[in-house]
Every structure is written in structure tokens, then in C-alpha cells.
Amino acid sequence: MKRMVKGTIILAVLLLVGGAIWWYWHAHRAPAVTYLTAAVTRGDLVATIAATGTVEPEEVVDVGAQVAGLITAFGMDEHGKPIDYGSEVESNTVLARIDDSMYAADAAQAEAQLQQSKAGEVSAKANLQQLKAKLDQAQRDWDRAQKIGPSGALAQSAYDAYRSAYDSALANVAVGDAAILQAHAAVAQAEAAVSRAQLNLGYCVIKSPVKGVIIDRRVNIGQTVVSSLNAPSLFLLAQDLKRMQVWVAVNEADIGLIKPGLPVTFTVDAYPDVVFKGEVGQVRLNATMTQNVVTYTVEIVTDNSNGKLLPYLTANVKFQISHREKVLLVPNAAVHWTPPPQLIAPDARTAGAGRGRRSSGAGAQESGTETSQAAPSRGTVWEQDGDFVRPVRVHLGLSDGIMSEVQSDSLEEGTEVVVSEAGPAAGEGGSAGPSSAGGASSNTNPFVPQFPNRRR
Question: What is the C-alpha separation between 67 and 76, in angstroms, rounded?
């Protein structure tokens, strides 16, 4: 009996000790590591350069005033409404009128001066005729005096008087000719003054030089415009809003990839769901420097037949640098992810770790502008093998900032590649030792930006 009791006690102690050991082992062992994976897909990839620009009218005319004065009225558009923002105008449509009272007076004065100069010219011509008649009389008297000569019939003094009268009449005719030339020049000068006065009077009516749309009206009725060295701007006129341009500032690091004719897509905040298309028109050579950053202005030409694009909208532009069709694609996270050594399969640990380190550098081919034009480089992605991962060597191609092109005989469409390790089960507030070494957060989407843990 005592032996049975003793055996029962020993068995109970063993069970308690075994249970304690079992509880301690399960309570302190590291949870199994889980991985976030993504399937290799096949599709098209477009490498782009992203930039921001401004929608601009293709042709803009700044209509100014060439004379100073008070704005008295606006013209009428084709619908009979006063010229204002958005008015559609034809060529030579009256846009505004400046008070012309002073310029009308100047024109009248110039016209009067012209008439006076013309009268002077007529008078000079009549005087010339008189002088020519006197010259003719003096010449006949002098001819008769020369035939008679100084004698008893013609005194010496009379002879000399005829000669002097002839020379004087000849000189007066030359003066008369000069007076006509002077009067003619005075007429030409007066005509120029009239023409100038008429031009200034005409400038009081501001007309549209081209057919277009008023996109800015910079004056009001009653406002005085002053014309000095620069003509004051009254209206900004877009010649044709059916074709628009986008002016984009491109960094000097990317400008070498931008060529005329390059296809472009862009969106504007006014229509976030609409993708507009265009192409590069030209690259301006006058670079600008802001905070030691050199940028070039690129002009993009786009069709605006539907009239959706308005002047000066902000455009989010993507230059389509290169395009690949039906290639194998993996998320960029799979290319950048490097596992800690303890997660690599033992038989591939040395080679896999080295390849992993090289694969992390492969991401250098991607620029901040979502494009990669470098020659294909080597990289590594990882496949799950139980609790471990195995390296798969790939050649990296283009990247659009989200997906990367890969080439490998070991990968095919549908193959699962690791993008991150998820660590222990969700809700435990941290990752297991191996997961912590990898630096990945637990149970998070690898495509969503990660933020530091907040204090609770």
C-alpha cells in the first residue's frame, strides 16, 4: 500500500515537472516567422519622369495702350456684351476707348498748320511767277542797252542801271525757287504732323490685333493709363485655346532623356480622373538656377478641342521615357528586401546572403523620378522555403517606382516572391528576434509608407 502511494506521488511530481517544462518552453519560444509575398505578374511597364508644370495658352498677345488718357468705355463682343473676362473677339474688334478730346484738338491743329503750309506754297509759286516776269522785263531792257551801249543816246548811269536790274531780277528768281522748296518742305512737315496726330487719335480706340479670347482685363472704366517707355498692359488675349501648352521645369539630371516628340501624359487637379495626352514640343535652352538646382523649361503641346484645359492650371506630368510589353514584373519591395542571415536556408546561406546584399544595391538604378534607363543589372529576389527563404538571381530592367522588370529562368508568372517578413502573429506589439533583425514591421502592407510607432 505504501509503495502504491509513493508511486502515485512520484508520478504526480513527474507530471507537474513535465507540465512546467512544457509550459515554460511554449511560453518562451519565439513565434514562427511569417512572410508577406506577392506573385510575379506579366504585363506592360512604362518608365517615366515625373515633373510639375503649368498649362499655358499656345499664343498669348498682350494688348497695351500707346497713348495716355482716361478709359471712357469698353467695346462690345460678338454677342453685344461689354468686353470682359472670357469674351470672344474677332480681329479689329474694339476693346476699349480712351478719352480723345486732347488728341482730337492736336489733330485739328495739325490739320490747320497743314493748310497754312499749303497756302504758303501756293504764295511762293505765285511770287516766283512775278519774279520771273520781272526778270523777263529786266532782260529785254538789258539787251536793248547792250545794243545801244554807253553813248550820247544812253548815259553810262542808265546803262549800269539796266545791267544791275537784270542781275537783281535773276537773283530774285533763284530766291523764289528756294522759297518754293522751303514751302514744299513745310507742307511735308505739316503732313507728317497731321499723320502723327491722326495716329495718336486712332490709338485712343484699342482694337484686338487677332481673333481670340480675353483671359485677363487689367483696366476699369474711369482708370487713367499712362504711356511712358513701356506700353501699359490693358488686356491679355489668348489667340487659340483649342491648342494648349504645358510648361514644365525639368531637373538637369533628367533633361538628357527629354527629346522633341516624346509622348507625355498629365493630369490636372480640376479633373483628377482625366488623363490628358501630349508630346514634347521643344526644350528651351535658357536654364534657371534656384537654390543651386538647375532646371530647364520643356514645352509640351496638347490638344484642347474639348475646352477642358484652362490657362494656368497646375499639371502633374509624366514623360514616357521607355516602354516594355509583356514582361515579368515584381513589386519594388521584393527587389529591395534583404533577409537577415538566420532566415536564409542553411544550404544557401552564404551565397544567398551575398546575393541579398548585392540586390539591395540594385535599387540604385531607380531615380527619384520613377525611371530607370541603366543597362539591366543583377539583383536577387527571395522565395519562401518553409520557415526560410531561398535566393533567386534575376536581371533587373526598367522600374516605374512601383514595379520592376525582372528576367530569370527560375521565375515564371504566378511565382510567389517575398516582399517582407511579417514577424509573429498580429497584435503582439513586436516581431520575433529574426523579424526584428530584418527591420520589417509586423502584419503591414509593404506598399504603404511606414510610420514610427506611437506611444500609447
Answer: 21
- What is the distance of C-alpha 380 from the center of its chain? 41
Which among 396, 315, 325, 329 has a CA at the least distance from the CA of 50? 315
Crossing angle of the two packed helices 101-148 and 156-202, in degrees rounded to 10: 160
Backbone angles phi, psi at 339, to 5 degrees: -75, 155
402 with 332: CB under 8 angstroms?
A: yes
Please, which pLDDT band fits residue 107 given cuts at 50, 70 and 90?
A: very high
Q: Report the alpha-carbon distance of residue 266 to residue 313 in Å, rounded.
A: 11
Q: What are 79's three cell numbers? A: 454677342
**Longest CA pairwise span in the chain (Å):** 205
pLDDT at 369 (0 to 100): 45
Q: How far is CA 305 from each of CA 86, 226, 310, 404, rounded to the nearest angstrom?
A: 17, 39, 12, 36
Q: Which three cell numbers stand for residue 196?
A: 502723327
Place of cell 518608365: 47
Q: What would the DSSP string read from start to end of 206-236?
A: EE-SSSEEEEEE---TTPEE--SSSPPEEEE
Residue 379 bridge partners (DSSP): 394
Strand-pair partners of 92: none
The candidate with the shortest Cα–Cα distance to 221, out of 83, 63, 71, is 71
Joined together, the cell numbers standing for residue 225 give 493709363
The three grid cell numbers given for residue 72, joined into one nine-digit string: 471712357
Half-sphere exposure of 375 (CA within 13 A, CB side): 0
Q: Is pLDDT above 70 for 345?
A: yes
pLDDT tens for 228-273 read: 666 788 999 998 888 899 999 999 999 999 999 999 999 999 999 9
Q: How far is CA 401 from CA 49, 356, 366, 451, in A?
A: 10, 20, 7, 20
Cα distances (angstroms) measured from residue 76 to each of 87, 92, 96, 101, 212: 9, 12, 9, 22, 14
Compute CA distances 286 → 22, 249, 256, 279, 392, whole Å.
Answer: 77, 11, 15, 20, 48
Do 249 and 286 form a contact (C-beta atoms < 8 A)? no
pLDDT tens, residue by residue, 21-63: 766 655 555 456 788 999 999 998 888 889 999 999 988 899 9
Contact 307, 290 (CB under 8 A): no
